Amino acid sequence: MAKPGVSSKVGTAGDGPSESRRALVEAAIETLRIDGFARASARSISARAGCNQGLVFYYFGSVSNLLLAALDAVSADRLERYSAAVAATASPQELVEVAATIFREDLDAGYAKVLVEMIAGASSTPGLGPEVLARIAPWTAFAGRAIQGLVGESGLGSVVPAEEAAYGVVALYLGLEMLSHLDGDRANALALFERAKQLATLFGAFTGAIK
Amino acid sequence: MAKPGVSSKVGTAGDGPSESRRALVEAAIETLRIDGFARASARSISARAGCNQGLVFYYFGSVSNLLLAALDAVSADRLERYSAAVAATASPQELVEVAATIFREDLDAGYAKVLVEMIAGASSTPGLGPEVLARIAPWTAFAGRAIQGLVGESGLGSVVPAEEAAYGVVALYLGLEMLSHLDGDRANALALFERAKQLATLFGAFTGAIK
DNA sequence: GTCTATACTTGGATAGAC
DNA sequence: GTCTATCCAAGTATAGAC
């Protein structure tokens, strides 16, 4: 373990007060967001960060490791904040409303875009797939907990198991993110959240009635 | 219009009996499927096609145009076949069953993967987004017609408009494709189709009852 | 420990051979 | 009309300067 970049956990930081390293992670996020995976090269990222491209390899060992560090950076922050927001919800309507807010925020800030680019780009770099997958697992688990808390008490858990539904929710989320970015219009996706809110109200009345 | 590649419609073929051109389109599909957008270069594609890389630019003018031709090639064939299959369905259960078969086929053959790579890769090439979007529109319309035929006769069209639902269905489809490829396991996605089939049976009984 | 200059590889594009 | 040889730009990676 001679170089900082080949440590087991990518992007741990705390390796010292290196401004370049921090700037590279930030620039990697921006590059994935704006230019996409295919243009996320050591040269373009370092140019955005305002430092020499060789530093990518000094700090991270490879471009892939830098991109994974970028993914870690956006994930950690978001997962914590969103978990707190979801934990504070009591009804299905509230949950969907929080989900819609999260989606809008992700779309505007481009956080989910980073994830989508990494998933789609994973097939272009050997060994990247499992690493990306490991960083999605917490999100599927997060969605699973939210759904569990929603239907767990009613008998609906047997109709659609929480884990199964969570997989679908994450897939839908990623798909909406992709389409919204492609057509440059978030209205279609947001309309679906509005519709889901209406259905959640119905659902809430339903589960309340059979209790 | 000096070169064949800069004609208004990409990949029209019938421009002559050029084996190289056909091989390039085929190789582009394979490359997008296996190596992803980021590695879909003129060199790697032409190597797979067994011809000189300069031919990419001779026939298509640019790598992007070749990739779009590849997208056209998979789309035209699939859309025709799937439309016929869906038109032959009568009940919601049948529709979901056909959808599951299509999904399984797409996943195995990697057709939807080509689409996902092009969508995610679109942000890496200026001007590619609108071209890809234009090639997705027929699919959203296709999903819209299928859903319309399903709920159009009942009063449910007002609860969830067909166009809105179609957008969600396409997003879900793309998201499932992405996740399935990432974790190399189609079981999670297929389980959702099984669940949908059960719900479709319930739905069929419901709309039958209120008629 | 931090960073740069440099070596080598791959990719996009075209002028011109056949 | 079809294709290849060749040019230059962009990318990865590292040896070594500070």
Number of helices of chain A: 9
Query: From N to C, what is the helix and strand string of chain A?
Result: HHHHHHHHH
Largest sheet of chain A: none
* Chain oligomer state: homodimer
SS-based structural class of chain A? mainly alpha
Provide the residue-averaged pLDDT of chain A. Answer: 89
Report the principal-axis shape of chain A. Answer: elongated
Largest interface: A-B, 42 and 42 residues
Which spans of chain A have pLDDT < 50 for at least 5 consecutive residues?
5-15
Kindly, what is the distance between the CA atoms of the first and last residues of chain A, rounded to a whole number of angstroms? Answer: 59 Å
**Beta fraction of the residues of chain A?**
under 5%
Radius of gyration of chain A: 19 Å
Helix content of chain A: over 70%
Total number of strands of chain A: 0
Give an overview of the whole structure:
- Two copies of one chain form a homodimer.
- The first copy, chain A, has 211 residues and is an all-alpha fold.
- Chain A is built from nine helices and no strands.
- Chain A has a domain at 72-210.
- In chain A, 73% of the residues lie in helices and 0% in strands.
- The longest helix of chain A has 25 residues, at 63-87.
- The radius of gyration of chain A is 19 Å and the shape is elongated.
- The model of chain A is unreliable at 5-15 (pLDDT under 50).
- At the A-B interface, helix 6, helix 7, helix 8 and helix 9 of A face helix 6, helix 7, helix 8 and helix 9 of B.
- Chain A binds a DNA duplex (18 and 18 nucleotides) through helix 2 and helix 3.
